From TrEMBL:
Sequence ranges assigned to domain Nitrite/sulphite reductase 4Fe-4S in this UniProt record: 163-317, 416-554
Keyword Oxidoreductase annotated: yes
Family affiliation: Belongs to the nitrite and sulfite reductase 4Fe-4S domain family.
Classification via Pfam families: NIR_SIR (PF01077), NIR_SIR_ferr (PF03460)
Domain Nitrite/Sulfite reductase ferredoxin-like: 93-155, 341-405
Keyword DNA repair included in the entry's annotation: no
MF term (GO), any: heme binding
EC category: oxidoreductase
Role this protein plays: Catalyzes the reduction of sulfite to sulfide, a step in the biosynthesis of sulfur-containing amino acids and cofactors.
Protein name: assimilatory sulfite reductase (ferredoxin)
Protein's organism: Geodermatophilus siccatus
Amino acid sequence: MTTPRTSNRPQRGQGQWALGYREPLNPNERMKKDSDGLDVRQRILDIYAHTGFGGIDPSDLRGRMRWMGLYTQRAQGIPGGKTAVLEPEELEDSYFMMRVRTDGGALTSAQLRTIGGISTEFGRDVADVTDRQNIQYHWIRIEDVPEIWRRLEAVGLTTTEACGDTPRGMLNCPLAGVLEDEVLDASDVMAETVAKYVGSPEFSNLPRKWKTSMSGCVDHCTEPEIDDVSFVGVRNADGEAGYDLWVGGGLSTNPMFAKRIGVFVRPDQVTDVWAACTSIFRDYGYRRQRNRARIKFLMADWGPEKFRQVLQDEYLHAQLPDGPAAAPPKHESRDHVGVARQKDGTNAVGFALRTGRISGSLLTRIADLADEHGQGRTRTTTQQKMVILDVPDERVEDLVAALAEHDLLVRPSAFRRGTMACTGLEFCKLAIVETKQHAQDLYAELEKRLPDFDEPIGINVNGCPNSCARFQTADIGFKGSMVRDDSGEMVEGFQVHLGGHLGTEAAFGRKFRGHKVTKAETADYCERVLRGYLERREPGERFAAYVARAEESWLL
């Protein structure tokens, strides 16, 4: 891709390379200019694995390590009220979170067994399945990283650019290639894009993170509405399968939905169009202020028409045909939990974990079950769930029972199925509240209090405003904060967002000025609001629609 040298584009002075602003504008940009993030790999192998944690250069430790999927872990016992008070070196432990890149969530049993073994041996048998289809370790020592990489790479896995200002792990439907009614299978175009550009210096210095999804799923399970760039399966007027291009989605403190660019992208064009979109972000993205360095801010200023013009004229040097909008999601639920028929007559069996938290030992057991009941193919989902593919009819119930022995549920309650949680205070330096265990306790309590509740309900528990668990798009979203309890003490709690919804008539959740609940009050609050919904709902009305018309007093 060529980079334009000059332009008359507006928004001068925001650090856009295409307008000549190449000087480092903040500490992050300076760090990246001093040394490409990809260069840290060799220093880890040659130096840091031998010197240990104390020998790591601070710029690598709190910056470039992310390019290799490594974040320093939060020191144990530091309360949430200290998160914004302490310096990074005071918050961090001498251990790392490590993110394994699993593009599209596709894993063989051999890969999953390797991931599980590493967790057990090097990560205190702890692992998280994330809502970006990755798997994260905790308690990783820098001395063990070379051996972990050796084992991962031996089965075709990597941690490269799983974090950092890079193309992060890409999303695809976990049932890609097997789902009976998918629009098309994006697996090959994603693999081509990953192979060509992940780990390449061409895109190793983006303004900030770059989240991609490519999927032909009829349920839009990759949640393209909130990705930086998405290729959404669609058929044009001639019946040809291709992709509708969406750009500019994102959550955090300034949530925005992606915009349709209005073009039809053939499968053989996807990699080039993705690279062109990524180049626009690299060259025109805002680098001066870190909190405006996402593509959503550029899209808000440009609009989709201008984005398309720059995409075609300056990067592709060709016109893309107009394209139709993708069909709305076919089903309300996007998690692929349950038993689904595959094209070949076998079945995909999706199951709920405990808000994404799992052990390495149990990942290894899942790999064994995938071999015993299927053909060794497993998938992770964007809802912190997992799927085993290729299960014959006569083996389905045996597999359901075997998974249930480990509290992995193919037919979970609405609360278990719909609850997600970010990493939280236990390991994350940005978090204000603990999330994983609290979310598990919450869904267990709601199962007791509302045992007959069977409507789909998303409850997303987030430890801070960054929305790693997507609190703005949940039916009930909890954003971690410190709040005062009845005695006036500052305790862990949450700001509440209600009625978030993706798909048709997408909307971010409603929030109410000053309305927060303590951690101890969340079950009471959920029960109160959900009972009100059950009493007042109209026939067939989902929770998000109810919230949209509800009086404020019903929701407090």
